[in-house]
Amino acid sequence: MKHIVQTIDFQEYLSSAELPGQDRELLETARAATLTSYAPYSHYHVGAAVRLTGGQIVTGSNQENISFPAGLCAERVALFAAVSQFPGIAIEAIAISARADNFDVTEPVPPCGMCRQAIAEYEMKFNKGIRIILGGETGKALVIDNMEQLLPLMFREKGLVKP
Q1: Which of 64, 75, 92, 137 does the annotation list as catalytic?
Q2: What backbone torsions phi and psi does residue 44 show, to the nearest 5 degrees?
Q3: What is the pLDDT along the chain (163 residues), one digit of tens a residue?
Q4: Domains of the chain: which residue ranges?
Q5: How many contiguous H segments (helices) and E segments (strands) does the chain have?
Q6: pTM for this entry
Q7: Is there a contact between 45 and 39 (Cβ–Cβ < 8 Å)?
Q8: By CB neighbour count within 10 A (0-12 exposed, 13-18 middle, 19+ buried), where does 42 fall?
Q9: Active site residue 137
């Protein structure tokens, strides 16, 4: 047996004001996207903003449904919109933020497992890491260089058996 330890490499900023310009702007855009969220059940509004290599920014917000599995997270809304509106253009970065109706979101909001795999898919598709910027309404912000840091044992195409 071999014991292996993996660590996560990321940058932590005391506030979004400390972020480099493009990262700060993308996080602010994600925060604004929370206003388009449809969250009548959780009252937790998530926004995401994707920046493409050409500089285009596409946003998304969580969209809930009374049949809970039918809803969609903000990250996947933004990713799917970006690759359908700008096919063939690689994703450079994604920022994620949230606000709640009943409390202040002061911690960075990480993507769920399905969204991590979706981000990983686009890293594999474009053979390029995607910068991940996480924040809440206020408080610290985190920057992760690529999805490999958040999902080190991600499912990859080589895991599929091909005839």
Answers
A1: 75
A2: -120, 110
A3: 999 998 999 999 999 999 999 999 999 999 999 999 999 999 999 999 999 999 999 999 999 999 988 999 999 999 999 999 999 999 999 999 999 999 999 999 999 999 999 999 999 999 999 999 999 999 999 999 999 999 988 888 776 766 5
A4: 11-152
A5: 4, 6
A6: 0.94
A7: yes
A8: middle
A9: no
What single-letter amino acid sits at 58? Answer: V
Residue 48: in which H helix or E strand, if any? strand 44-52
DSSP 8-19: --EEEESSGGGS
CATH of 11-152, one of 1.20.1250.20, 3.90.950.10, 3.30.1780.10, 3.40.140.10: 3.40.140.10
**Which of 33, 143, 157, 154 has the alpha carbon at shortest distance from 92?**
143
Distance CA(80)–CA(22), nearest Å, equals 21
**80 CB contacts (<8 Å, ≥6 apart)?**
60
Helix (H, G, I), strand (E, B) or coil at 49: strand
Between the alpha carbon of residue 101 and those of residues 27, 33, 42, 146, 160, the distances in Å are 20, 15, 9, 31, 42
Q: Where are the alpha helices (DSSP H) in 12-163?
A: 21-33, 74-85, 113-126, 147-150
